[in-house]
Amino acid sequence: MVQKVAVIGAGISGLTSIKACLDEGLEPTCFESSHDIGGLLRFKEKPEPGRANIYQSVVITTELANNMHHSEVLLYMRLYAQDFKLLQHIHFKTTVVSVRQTPDSAATGQWEVETERREGQRETRVFDAVMVCTGHFTQPHLPLSDFPGTRNHYIPYFLSHLNETHCSCCYSNSVYLSTRSGAWVVSRVGQRGLPADLVGTSRMDMMIQKLFPSWINGMVEKKLDETFDHALYGPSHIFCVPDFFEQIPVVNDDLPARIISGRVQVKPNVKEFCGSSVVFVDGSIIDEVDVVVFATGYNYSFPFLPPALQAKSGYRLRLYKHVFPPALTQPTLAVVGFIHSLGAINPLAEMQARWATRVFKGFTTLPSEETMMKEIEKDTVTMHLRYACSEQNPLQVDYIPYLDSLAEQVGVRPNILWLFLKDPRLALEVWLGPCTPYQYRLTGPGRWAGARQAILTQWERVLQPFRTRLVPKPETRASSRRSVIVVISGSALLCSVHLKKKLIIPPLLRRSNIYNAWLLE
Predict the structure, then answer these.
(1) How far is residue 286's CA from residue 280's CA, in Å, rounded to a whole number?
(2) Helices (DSSP H) in 228-368: which residue ranges?
(3) What pLDDT digit, counting tens, does each position of 164-175 carry?
(4) How does pLDDT run across 111-129, given as a tens digit for each residue?
(5) Is residue 183 predicted with pLDDT exceeding 90?
(6) What GO CC terms are in its UniProt record (predicted)?
């Protein structure tokens, strides 16, 4: 019987895993190699070897506030850890060296977890289950072999592709943005100034996208090009990718302004480096380049896991629903947070952790190894057809469908039809509103009594941060209403007169020249 669980990593995924364990009555022990929680979202003045970092001005889109600074996100994580009493289960400055099965693991499912503290002390402990929560931003991807003559200063920022440009512009006279495949650039600000991640992200929107994928894709791309023409701001074969939904877009409000002001110049792929000069594939050369920032992403790595558990399917790990290795006799090891989607990682990691702990407890069973392998291969083929997968972007899922698939396993997926019969007001908000994690707390294990009210009032919390200056609502002008009524009534009267002239005409007039002339008019 599973009771003691080792959790590796104290970032977003690790914290949600600790809480999920406590919710199921398990005893979690979390090992964090650094001195604090936060993982990737904790900015480090001095980058640590082997650990990803974010740049100081990064802004994260979250659902508590409308785009918080990373320091505020870290504050939220501290409040989360304090509120649910998670800190007492975390061992800081403790690195996991290896995770291996015990000799009798086929029967017990237990694991030997070897750790090392900063002082060099090593310890091996036995756990009933393990949750790996180290993410996939671990090893910097430096394609130095692709660029002959590379001589550069490497700055290990976290976000890949175009997001570093804003940071570079703040400290440089000239910035040249070299991009090979390009990307769609979206703003954090959506329609009417609302957070973009809350607009067009309802269950109804997802259904329409599934029914009419080409139409929705074309509409989104057209809307983005209305903001700024991607083909104009960069060579069309560089900035325009075939499909908006094929890869995660770049969320950046500053890039178009930097390009139009000349602070950023878009260039094609780099051909080679010659001393302090950079040669691009189109033959252009930039001399006296001071710094080269490789915004080329990260490779994932789990050096502490046995090689047998790191088999791949395509570019991704061979994991059932991106969580469980299918070859284990006892499903007592889960990978949480190794996921990528057009949506926040927090709800995804939380749902994975809730499912994993239910499996550990025996409340939910997994299919046979053969069935899991078939589903993994099928999902991999589908994923490669739909998304631009690579070593740096090994996997991507559809946000709501993936959450729903795990929620079905846990027993917390909302029944929309039943909600329409039982609580139409709530059903409309669940169907038409943004899909927030409250929806998975309405029923089943982990049910929260405040979930319904939280869903019905979620837009109030979205609008609250804007209310820093109270402005009285303008009174509705009766004259304006009367004007609208007069215009509509007048139009209707003219239409009726026009139809009456056509349909009710005296017989004598029909044969007259006046009628013929009127028809000609």
Answers:
(1) 8
(2) 230-233, 236-239, 255-260, 345-361
(3) 555 555 567 789
(4) 999 999 988 999 999 999 9
(5) no
(6) endoplasmic reticulum membrane
Say which residues have a Cβ less than 8 Å from residue 37's Cβ, sequence separation at least 6: 10, 11, 14, 15, 77, 78, 81, 87, 90
Tokens of 170: 């703040």
Whether residue 22 is predicted with pLDDT greater than 70 in this model: the reply is yes
Q: What is the mean pLDDT of the chain?
A: 83
The two structure tokens encoding residue 158: 């976290």
State the DSSP code for 434: B
Residue with tokens 């299918």: 326
Which residues have C-beta within 8 Å of that of residue 368, sequence separation ≥ 6? none
Q: Are 366 and 331 in contact (CB under 8 A)?
A: yes
Q: How confident is the model at residue 388 (pLDDT cuts 50, 70, 90)?
A: confident
Task: Pick 21 or 221 by higher pLDDT.
Answer: 21
For residue 98, list its beta bridge partners.
114
Amino acid at 289: V
> Which amino acid makes up residue 455?
I
58 compared with 69, residue with greater pLDDT: 69
Query: In this structure, are residues 304 and 115 in contact, taking their beta carbons and an 8 Å threshold?
Result: no
Who's near 212: CB < 8 A, 6+ residues apart?
Answer: none
Q: What is the pTM of this model?
A: 0.82
Find all residues with CB under 8 Å of 279, minimum gap 6, and list them.
270, 271, 272, 273, 285
* Cα gap 116→122, rounded to integer Å: 4
**Measured between alpha carbons, how far is 253 from 246 in angstroms, rounded to an integer?**
21
